[in-house]
Amino acid sequence: MISQIFILSCRGDHLIYKNFRGEAGNEVVNIFYQKVTTLPENQAPVIMNHEGLHFIHVRQSGLYFVATARTNVSPFTIIEFLNRFASLIKDYCGTLNEKLVRLNFALIYELLDEMLDYGYIQTTSTDILKNFIQTEVVDTKPSSLFDLSNIGLFGADTQQSKVAPSAAASRPVFSSRSEQGSKNEVFLDVIERLTVVIGSNGTVMKVDVQGEIRMKCFLPSGSELRIGLNEEFSIGKSELRGYGTAVRVDECSFHEVVKLDDFDSNRILKLHPPQGELTIMHYQLSDDLPSVLPFRLFPTVEKDLNSNRLMVHLKLRCDLPPKSQALNVRVHLPVPKNTISLSQELSSPDQTAELQQSTKSIQWVISRFPGGSQLSALFKLEVHSLSTSPTLEVGPVSMSFELPMHTCSGLRIRFLRLSSLQTGLPHRWVRYATHSDSYVIRV
User: Read out DSSP for 375-439?
Assistant: First the structure.
């Protein structure tokens, strides 16, 4: 009989946890992850033990599906159940990844309630379960290339973009029936969203890149499109390919129209794209980026002993290549709740900063930040009745930004070729952008 079921991400994040028999606490989740990550071999054993508790797990789509048991159960039965559990999530959600598990946690808990009773397996049949499952599937909402109200340069979503979108990318698919067939162009966007957590000592604690290749197609029907990715592109911990800089992702998935005949050998995607918008590929990379992080912050917080002032000195360095730049950079810094006013010294005139009383935070805004440069700001906070440890009330810093023509994974489009019977060379556009999903620096 099964004691517990839980699902972990490849980074050890707790996604799902269900305790059926109360034979152990939730601390076993961390024990399992420590065991599975400290093993010398790349492939961890399916079954492990800890103080009489058996861990049985499978890994699918970068997720750990784990069952625990105190009694001697058939490991093959549990492994088959875990594989079937993963397949059921895929049946209901259409695919299996960390984001969908987070969004559909209510559905997954309902599945577990129907599949298991006090740790005993009841059913794993989709036909039977569909009569009892009431929770609706929450699907991911891919960013639409047609909704450009919050889209900045190169198609990346922004919280408050000051950069006008490309006129070509904002054209509708068909503005009128007479216009159909008059176009002969294709747009390809490589969009990445970056999640980072940096500790107060500068140690990178978490890095995650969620990427996708999106297409807007105005090509005649029957056209075959060939998209070449980096020759060095590899998936998982497989052997590195090519002779250039390694480009690796933990997992990726493709749209059903993509043919992968030449993908393993030449990293070429083939498809006959329909007219309109299409997401060709999703991919994810965690922890091991091929390039340095785009920003480093060096904060200093000091208390003025002669007054009720708190001095906050921030040095922000942009580690992008010198020819690159970051746009719409926003630095959000929480300050003590008793802060009354703010005076500031900024290193350049194209920066702005203000104290937002409603949220008790400083907003430091940099419209354009060239790669390889450094900016600084000195904030003097007037605080009413400073506490004994006011520096503990400052931070953490969170940032938002856009990086046009830059990908943190290193993924590039090697070529974009079209095979068509129609005369005339089609217009082809390839654009790259990285957008901050969450960029947190602890002070």
Answer: EEEEEEEEESS--S-GGGGS--EEEEEEEET--SS---EEEEEEE-SS-SPPEEEEEEEEEEEEE
Global pTM?
0.60
**Whole-angstrom Cα distance, residue 94 to residue 114?**
20
By the 8 A CB rule, do 313 and 378 touch?
yes
243 burial via Cβ count (<10 Å: 0-12, 13-18, 19+):
exposed
Is 330 in a helix, a strand, or coil? strand
Rg (CA), the chain: 26
Rounded-to-integer distance, Cα 65 and Cα 5, Å: 8
92-117 tens-digit pLDDT: 887 888 888 988 888 999 899 899 98
Closest Cα partner for 81 from 124, 29, 48, 20?
124
Model pLDDT for residues 169-203, shown as the tens digit of each residue:
333 333 333 344 456 888 999 999 999 999 888 88
Give the integer Cα–Cα distance in Å for 355 and 334.
Answer: 10
| Residue the block writes with tokens 């559990």 | 85
